[in-house]
Description:
single chain; alpha+beta; 8-stranded antiparallel β-barrel; 9 helices; 8 strands; globular
Amino acid sequence: MSIYASAGFPVPVISYSILHQAAPGVPKEEYEQTMLEMHARVAAESASVAALEDRAVAELTARNAQMLRGTLAQFLETPIRSDNQELQKIFLESFDKYRDQLTERSPAGVIGSWEGALKEPGTSAVLRKMASAGKSYLRSLGFTTGKGAAPVYESVYLVNGARNLDVLEHIVRDRLGIYASTHGKHIAESGKFTVAAHNLILSAGAELPVPVRGTAGEGAIYFSKPDVPYDDFRASLAPLVTGLGGLAGVYSVSVWQRKLGLGRGEEFILRCILSDPGLLARIADVLKATAEPRVRDAVLGGGHLLLKELLSPPAP
């Protein structure tokens, strides 16, 4: 039995997110192209690592099944080839079931990612206030905002379980290389950046990563927990997430909590992946009208909004 199953909690979906800004003089189009190439390379290398693991496990299972069959051969009364083949099949199936009980079959590497560029929220008074708080939030993290400043972007990579953070690091540092290929180009082009890791705690709508194409935007609201117990606060968020996930044009709503305090910034993020960024105003109205007061105050009153145009839609 895996440690997750034996301890009674599911394998967490973890987001590794990077807020970043191009260095002075780097053209916007060139910077965005580098980022899209980075997502494509990480996805390709994740698939390669996953295939490598599947092949290694299959070979190890077959080899051990054959060894076990050889060990038992002296006890078999009818050493007929067809019987041996049937035994091999039984052993393989048994080892496969044992693996399911002992480990988690989550895909190796990144299960999905997306890239977003920050944009203005439109005319909604509530959203403009939250977007202003969002700019202050970015400045507190060291980013430059205002006229003439380079756009701020966010890269989001999703993995299943902490072991895949190791796989992601291996892909970026060793397979892509720190100073070579797309990763090296991204480092050279980047100015300011900050990273964080969050656990998925609530979601509604399409299962993450969102299996849609042509998604137009994402609203990310960064907020802190009020002075209430964590369990109570998470429970008060659940009906709101479910309600928002049912709105037309809202592909996915999710709440993320910072993992082990890793990274700077607020502890919680409400992410809404939308067919139209303008739908965020509707989400703000629903929050204002239906959310429990503690949630409304934390998300709308104290939240920092970053509205993004997605350059690459979330997809496996």
